Amino acid sequence: MIRHSNYQVDPWSLRECALDLEVLAQSESLFALSNGHIGLRGNLDEGEPYGTPGTYLNSVYERRPLPYGEAGYGDPESSESVINVTNGKVIRLLVDDEPFDVRYGTVLEHDRRLDFRSGTLTRSVTWRSPADAMVRIRSERLVSLSQRSVAAIRYEVESVDSSVNVVLQSELVANEFVPEVKGDPRVAEALENPLVGEEHMSEGHRALLMHKTKNSGLRVGAAMDHEVDGPGGVTSSAESINDIARLTITSTLATGERLQVTKFLAYGWSAHRSRPALHDQVLGALASARNTGWDELLKEQRASLDEFWSGADIELEGDPEVQQAVHFALFHVFQASCRSERRPIAAKGLTGDGYDGHTFWDTEMFVLPVLAHTYPVAAKDALEWRRSTLAQAEERAKQLGLEGAAFPWRTISGQECSAYWPAGTAAFHVNADIAAAAVRYQDATGDTEFEGTTALELFVATARLWRRLGHHDAQGRFRIDGVTGPDEYSALGDNNVYTNLMASRNLLEAARLAATHGDAAQGLGVTVEEVASWRDAAEKIFVPYDERLGVHPQSEGFTNLDLWDFSLTPPERYPLFLHFPYFDIYRKQVLKQADLVFAMYLCPDAFSPEEKLRNFAYYEAITVRDSSLSASVQAILAAEVGALGLAYDYLGEAALIDLDDRQRNTRDGLHLASLAGTWTALVAGFGGLRLRGGELSFAPRLPQEITKLRFTLRHRGRRLSATIVPDHATYELLEGKAMTILHHGDRVDLGGSPVDAELPAVIAAPEIAQPPGRAPLHRHQSRPEGAVTSLLPGGLHAVEGGSEIGEEVVERFDTDRETDQSRIDG
Amino acid sequence: MIRHSNYQVDPWSLRECALDLEVLAQSESLFALSNGHIGLRGNLDEGEPYGTPGTYLNSVYERRPLPYGEAGYGDPESSESVINVTNGKVIRLLVDDEPFDVRYGTVLEHDRRLDFRSGTLTRSVTWRSPADAMVRIRSERLVSLSQRSVAAIRYEVESVDSSVNVVLQSELVANEFVPEVKGDPRVAEALENPLVGEEHMSEGHRALLMHKTKNSGLRVGAAMDHEVDGPGGVTSSAESINDIARLTITSTLATGERLQVTKFLAYGWSAHRSRPALHDQVLGALASARNTGWDELLKEQRASLDEFWSGADIELEGDPEVQQAVHFALFHVFQASCRSERRPIAAKGLTGDGYDGHTFWDTEMFVLPVLAHTYPVAAKDALEWRRSTLAQAEERAKQLGLEGAAFPWRTISGQECSAYWPAGTAAFHVNADIAAAAVRYQDATGDTEFEGTTALELFVATARLWRRLGHHDAQGRFRIDGVTGPDEYSALGDNNVYTNLMASRNLLEAARLAATHGDAAQGLGVTVEEVASWRDAAEKIFVPYDERLGVHPQSEGFTNLDLWDFSLTPPERYPLFLHFPYFDIYRKQVLKQADLVFAMYLCPDAFSPEEKLRNFAYYEAITVRDSSLSASVQAILAAEVGALGLAYDYLGEAALIDLDDRQRNTRDGLHLASLAGTWTALVAGFGGLRLRGGELSFAPRLPQEITKLRFTLRHRGRRLSATIVPDHATYELLEGKAMTILHHGDRVDLGGSPVDAELPAVIAAPEIAQPPGRAPLHRHQSRPEGAVTSLLPGGLHAVEGGSEIGEEVVERFDTDRETDQSRIDG
Fold first, then answer.
1. Which of A16, A488, A620, A705 is catalytic?
2. Which has fewest Cβ within 10 Å: A359, A780, B60, B450?
3. Active site includes B488?
């Protein structure tokens, strides 16, 4: 799937210049607005047609039973599903009694634009009704980044060439029909009409609906208010019943006259607060929004985004598609998290109901590291959310016969919602991932208050888990057996390298924090002996290595497994898990996603440069990338080992996953981890950013397709930028105290003025193959003439004349690599 | 739980001398009658009270959906559940309008007896009604072993001390209320009232009901006819509606007068035959039964059992409980299988609805080897059933990406019904087990026609599976990774020793059969190259060994796993799988049941005597025996390594599993594999029977508690017996051609007269420990004075004075064992 022709390339917005109902659901995800608290899919204002109607409130879910054919002890009995709450987006329009519906009449013009700097979705439509009346409709929608409970819509209808009677019906609709609740009838029963009406109210231009979810018992309030501006003779009346509140506005528009309605929406929910309290809360938010007014909301919106972009922008030259994609990606990452405020950031943000709205390790390993350097407060909030679920994780650990905390594989509220434990509960690495995200946040901000409180609690709880989960064998090695690593095409392995290395870091960091914050640690019952046992386990961690192949097995014994027979796997049998049983997949050397390769990024010092190259090449050949979590990680390591063209192609995979609908499920929501991974592929891949104990190091290297890369990031109260061109990089401290960074291992002091640094030669990696048909899409079919393929040793530029010659250069350097492995990493 | 005091010890029957409703459900299982085609639980004649009403027809099941919280490719979508078919056992009695119900009035006498030689269940009750009328009721029930579709009941009521009006209502009842259909509501929906009425008929003393199952579409017919014998004035009338047919008989009985009713029942079912055809089939069987008559049915019953016992009886002195238990066990094994006739033998036979009436590997590995030596035709039939499901197994193999056949882990019809694949589909050893059962049958009978047809087909299909399931690694070893062995507390291991050894045998035997039956093999597409690849894989099979510990790991790496913490496992937390998650259990060294130990019995030449002892001791310490499949296997190996007291205790565990309700679920049906294992524990354990390529070898050795053991078995058209006393064994050929056997490795020719052979000394094993609290029950608390504990080297008898000294003797021989390991195995 490549980009739909309706979507236009533009650096700061996503534009759709025509309406194609085939991609309506995809558009709804792409054009979704959110602030991390409220999420509105990009549904058409008039409600229909839709792919999936979607209005979400972070953490408003319904509980549903989890069925088992053969249940086991400890299997979660219920799961949670995000629900479509009261829809306040709907503004229906009748033109001379004819409902405005794009499926009828003629759409003469359609333009939608999601603006990454204004934070609004604008729409412009010119429509000729079946009865030949022509109207122009303009709408602009925002979910406020400044006022967390507020969204607003400005809707304007203009008569183009005649006098028309128009009726606008602005609504709040609960329990909308949601298509495709399928499968288990009990699940369908739980999720159909999840809201029970508690109150409805309408007066003047205002209305409110209060509901409560049936099983999870969450109370939801939604309210709307309106400003109406039109020619004389406008009438309005409000009404409400259980699941609908409606303001009906009528007007007669002469040619060129406009009726404009500004709709303010406020949402609130609570598991504990009373109906009157929530009622007042919602109306209060609504009053505040109305008081702020539309124009001011727009200004606040832009100000929030200006602030974000000032520490997050990435500019690149040479690839306008990826330039747009990275802005799109960062915009959605920001939207999904900025006002989450101690609520989870779901795998799809609030853009769709895919994965039931659950949060996975994606958040900690893909999204939070980006936020830590671009919008740190959101990273902190997400970690505070994890801490808020510590009691549930401790309870789960007990149930599993463990100590400390066992965080859930997938959840909304904090309880484990995975019905298939080999790929859920057994994936204990999520605990180390949470700890790693806390370290990352810590290193990026130097937030010592966080370190002594939230970080310490998370580390102590997870260290206790690891200490109990592993054991020393007769040789004294600390083993972690029978767990599942990141790769979902393997399960229940012994000594997964990723898990073991991350657990080791987790234990060491816990020991460090416990020493630094002695009193607080003592308050958590940590003793000197316990800390010693953490250090011992961490130092004795078993990292299997296959001497014969010279590579690390993903888990112990992995390299003994049978190889996947790719000759029997035609393209239509991907993704594998939909066409082969797990039994078959698990017992073969085939990967869904980066696992050991991820470990090489996260724990760079645990591998020599030679090992990194051999490992990377080994796993590239067996990774089918059926997971959206893979490409960005592969991009980073490809860049590190010198496979810059390959890194570039993986960057494209990560960046364009939703714009190009690469996984064919963007309709269910955006792939937030892959979007965040775009930043990482650029900054950690081509920028070579690594962060060790608060020190920033860069090792920039550009693929030939990108002629310039500039990124800005935040670090410990500072803002700095790096501008990379093929032969040098320029670092600049934009704000904050002077600092020292590393550039390819050399110390560079940053103060008042920009500093240039040369880029050392990159030795191109030998040819690295992917499984047949699974190489990333090679987007630039013909490389520009005269482009720089790579920098040769000695600083010479190799100038290539054609498209395929880059490959030859790679081969030419094969021999060099054999004899001079130490130079791979610059 | 020890034996309920109501159950009396008697060698040839099970008697219940009082009624305790607490053990009613257990009694129903113990007193069940069956012929392998029809199964009637030992419900009271009057229908109520009951634990579980149970009337079963082999392979009559209902299909039900299998739910998944997260489904995977290849997960079976539906399962099958045995259903309670039309109940023909019911004969209700009213005494002066008072229903006879043991919960009301007074039971003055209660006696039930299951006779292992007559094959009937008799009952005698004296009851005083609440209105003070006293009646004596005698009933006798049989499920005909000679007429497969027939059951019969003789019911007699006698007035004891007054004149009473009695009414008998003899019924056929479909869709009885079945208690405790719980869990998933869709499952309950599928299994509640599974029968849809198609026809009902009544005339004279006869009646018939025809039904069809809702989802599986199986047609079931049940009919009854009656002979009524009573004083003058007996009236009768028949009636029927959709789910009930009833013959009502009235009589007035003066003191001492009796009303006797003989009820003949006929059953039939079909997936294909039309209603009229099945109707006629059932009435035809009924007519035949009536024509045979009650007395003749009794005679045929006894004749069938006489024939069985003549080749199956086991006598033992010194333990009347086990003597009864082994007769009980063999009776039920025979009942469950004798007329199965190409239908499966379920784990619970037809005695209850436990495990949904499914068949597992239990049949092939526990039941069929016993039948092969006692009633071979039933073993053959069961293997023919497996062959009849070959097409489904081949289809399943394809679905799993394999070749050949993948037989289901649990099934009724042949389709995989396991909803939890790590413990189901992944347990591929079932395929080698089926092949092994075919070899066993083959070796025990010399049935060459079977070898060239059914056996060949099964072997070719399973060899193809193994060849594809395994692969050669870089060292040339043939590995089978990611499969589950017999032990259900481990899953998805690499190179499970049991599986690999059995697969190797499977492949070699397939190669042998293909060579012997060249044309037939060619017909199955077998080529010389294919056969060579089987031999190569078999010879290169990887059998992991832990050099450090000197034991075989159950699967590769098993001995590296953490040990289970038994100190944190109080008795109430067994069975472990109900109190700990599989994740925890799988990753620790803890076994539910014999696994490697079973391999040592089945593949005795793959282990040295020293290895057997070390392995046995190692696994004893970590086997918690939560499975009923374990004790008999442990008994065999305990005997082989010289732990005779331990072997004796395990024998008791296997033998008394249902009589003592050791697993507390006998209510759901009998544990057929454990019952069959009683035979194996005695014959292969204390008799030392091994069978290699048709040659019988014995290595008898008795525990002190058993002073004499005699068993009869069939072998290749012969009957022979072995009588073992502490110092010698006597072998006798009872029927058939002269033959040679091995006695402790020495050839013994058997012809006309019995042959005596001395028993060599047994070197007692060193102390072998089980997990705390998990040692088998030590039934004889005080050993008889002067009993022989063991035979010392040199043929001297060690005479012990007390109960615990046997343990000391064991310890005394510890040193001997270290220096003379080669003598362990005699």
1. A488
2. A780
3. yes
